[in-house]
Write a structure and sequence with these properties.
Elements lengths: L4 E5 L6 H10 L5 E5 L5 H6 L5 E6 L6 E9 L1 E6 L12 H4 L4 E2 L23 H9 L4 E5 H6 L5 E5 L6 E8 L5 H11 L48
Parallel strand pairs: 1-2, 1-3, 6-7
Antiparallel strand pairs: 3-9, 4-9, 5-7, 5-8
Length: 236
């Protein structure tokens, strides 16, 4: 299969393992990985700048399919010397007295603003991390984003009742390259190469029909008996 495939992905999502499987199964079809912001992921796919995207739900779903892949736990990020440093897990009730930043690219969907409302909303998660590192407020994010922006002076622990982020593979409803999309779906869902949506397995080689009769082994050679020596005739 020829051509190419462009897969966009948002921060925190790591498509490397799927890219390696793609390379093994479709070595003649290059896979291009493009990191995009949360805000532009869906638009890139709709505009045809990416064949598909790994993004976070619910997000922008207009004219797009979305196949959920996995759900991430949410964690709260705070300075390492904070009073919560000894905690293994927290709840939203624990965070209620504290300022919780909500960046404009927040990956979580909140029913109501958690904690104390901040004075302003940072542009990005990276900006919010910088503010938390300065000792002001906290930030609740999917665990992968906390790992992505990890700093030695910060710590994070799970928040038991916080909204969670679902990562999905999204592609156009009217897809122009359905065969490659099916390959990608099979890969991200962990299907084997012989599955119905994976690459078609190579046809099995026909085995030669078994011979009906076994070839007879040659009969063992019979050793020739030495010729009998004639008796000497007696003279008269």
């Amino acid at each position: 299969m020829t051509g190419s495939f462009t897969l966009a992905y948002v921060p925190g999502v790591t498509p490397g393992k799927w890219a390696r499987v793609w390379e093994e199964r479709l070595p003649e079809t290059p896979l291009h990985l493009v990191q995009v912001t949360v805000a532009e992921a869906a638009a890139k796919v709709r505009a045809g700048e990416a064949d598909a995207a790994l993004l976070r739900l619910p997000g922008d779903r207009e004219d797009l399919h979305a196949i959920p892949l996995y759900t991430e736990i949410s964690v709260v990020v705070f300075p390492k010397d904070h009073e919560f440093a000894a905690a293994d897990e927290l709840s939203l009730e624990d965070l209620k007295p504290h300022v919780l930043w909500q960046p404009l690219d927040d990956a979580l969907e909140w029913d109501s603003a958690p904690g104390q409302p901040p004075v302003e909303r940072p542009e990005t998660t990276a900006d919010a991390i910088q503010i938390v590192a300065a000792g002001v407020g906290m930030l609740v994010v999917p665990q992968s984003l906390a790992r992505l922006h990890h700093r030695k002076d910060l710590k994070y622990v799970p928040v038991s009742d916080a909204p969670q982020s679902r990562v999905a593979l999204s592609f156009p409803i009217r897809d122009e390259n359905p065969e490659l999309i099916e390959h990608m779906i099979g890969i991200v869902r962990g299907r084997t190469v012989n599955s119905t949506r994976g690459p078609a397995p190579e046809p099995a080689k026909k085995q030669a029909p078994k011979q009906q009769q076994q070839r007879r082994s040659p009969a063992p050679r019979q050793q020739k008996q030495p010729a009998k020596r004639a008796k000497p005739r007696r003279g008269r």
